TrEMBL record:
It comes from the Eukaryota. It comes from Rhamnusium bicolor. This is Uncharacterized protein.
Amino acid sequence: MLEEDRLRDDEYEKQYYGFSSTELYEDFKEQTSQAVKMALTEIETALEAAKYDKVLREQKIAEFYAAYMESAKIPLHKFKNEARKIFAIPKNVVLEEDQHKIEHFSDEDIIKLKTEVTELEKELLRNLPKSIEVDENHKKVMDFYEDHVQYYFSNENETETPHLKGIESDFIKTTDDYFK
């Protein structure tokens, strides 16, 4: 998604919900990071009380934090995507300030569209028998093909079988009938 699109979506979400999915993600990420930092600070305090080397202790805490941030990338990314899906404003929802952007249709436009839909329905009904016939011919061709392939493989050791004589012409005739 382009940055401009994301900004527009965030603005729409913020107007609709009072927050955006990006804000939710950033806040969640920050709160999670703070909770991990607090836990690591408590661990550091416990290690300090145990008289561990300060430089080594700080180095290990920094490594733990970096390891957490690395391991959290995928779940945080999934969270961000899910939040965006959940809070996405459908394209058909128009907020009050954007009402002027809506394309309005006259009664004539609506009648014209209804007429067009009716004509398309009639055309579909006219073509439906042809479609059913094509489906039936397709089934015949596939059945014919399967029968002959199964027969061929069950008799593949025979050098020439009387049943396979003329199979090519039968198949061509059947497929020609199908594509008429």
